[in-house]
Structure formats: C-alpha cells, structure tokens
Amino acid sequence: MTNSEQIAVTGATGQLGRLVVAELLQAAPWARVIGLVRNVAAAKALADSGVELRRADYDDPASIATALVGANKLLLISSSEIGRRRVAQHRNVIDAAMAARMKLLVYTSLLHADKSPMALADGHRDTEALIRASGIPFVLLRNGWYTENYAANAPTAVKHGTVLGAAGDGRISSAARADFAAAAAAVPSRPGWSGLRARRRHGLHSHRICSGGRETVWEARDLQRPERSRVQGRAAV
What's the rounded Cα separation, in Å, for the pair 121 and 110? Predict the structure, then answer.
C-alpha cells in the first residue's frame, strides 16, 4: 500500500469515529486519513494529530461530494439518527461515494441486522441494501452492543446488588467501542480488501458473554475496571 491511499471517515468526531481515526493513524501511517466533520473549527484536536479535516454534513449531499474528492476508500460510520432520516443520510453518502468511484466502502452496521427484530435494525438493513445495490466493493461490519451502553448503570447495580432490565437470562457479548474501532480500522488499512475480497459481512462481538441473570451484578463490577475485549466475528458472503 502506498501514500496514494486516501481513507475518508464520516462522523470523525463522534464517539466511535474519533477512535477509528486514531486507530487508522497507527495502522496506516502511509495513508492520508480524511476526517469528515460538520464543524471543522471544533475538530482541532484531530487536525493536530495529522488528520485532514473536511466539512461534510449527512444532510447536505453537496458537502459530502466535495469532501470525498480524491478519497478512494470510505468508512461510513452510521449516523446518530434513527429511522428514515438515518437511511436518507446514508443514501447521501453512498450516492457521493458512487460518484467518486470509491474502490471500497466499509459500513458499521448492527449485529444480525438482516434478521434482528429490533427497530434499530431497520435503518441498518435498508442501508446495507443501498450499499449492495451501489456496485461499490464493500465490507459490512455488523457491530455488537457497546459495553459503554451498560457502564453508566454499573455503579447503581453494584451498590444495590440488583440489575433492572428486561434481559432475563438472555446472554450478551458486548465489547468496548475501542475494540470495534480497531476492527473497523483494520479493513481499509490492509491490502486485499477490495474487488473480489470485498462484498462481505462480518458479525463482530466480544469473546466474553455476559448474562442477564444472577451473574450480572458481578459483571457490573467488572464494567468499572478497564479491560480490552477480544473482538471476534464470522465472515459471510
């Protein structure tokens, strides 16, 4: 891989995006990392780290098209919106990627997006369909749940010895955002992830499984201790 590689990342200042950008800078020092942000002035820390900032708003197709000029790989981090607006925003990005003749599009989707009954899965399912129809070589990263989603409630669970929720004895293999970010950065930063090796989906989750039953209080204690998980997944065509 040469410095002709230009990897664009949407939502580069978001909770996941900023971690992905940091991983890319380490994994692909030869590449130009382009951070797409709504407010360039507010992203000075990214610029100081070596990221080229470009303004792009999910709701502004022209800004996205301009921001993708020269980029040849795109990591589309799903927007924070839900429902039809999210799909419309993603459509704007995908259309711009098609016009830019992107050679690889990586998308952060949802684990089991194709069959999950969660309302959250609808937007991801529709976005995946748009990507498949675009003709761009792609990799779909179906992320599991973020451990940070539970961490805020961990102190209360430990204090009272009770976890309030509807999981019952369901089992969850969540992982930290940093681990999903490392997995996302690995795809565009490595050779071979284009052409015939693309058009894949990968379900990503932690090797550690937590239950919603009696053990959960003990697992809540663990959430308060820093720990990196090993994200693993299964590839499927």
Answer: 7
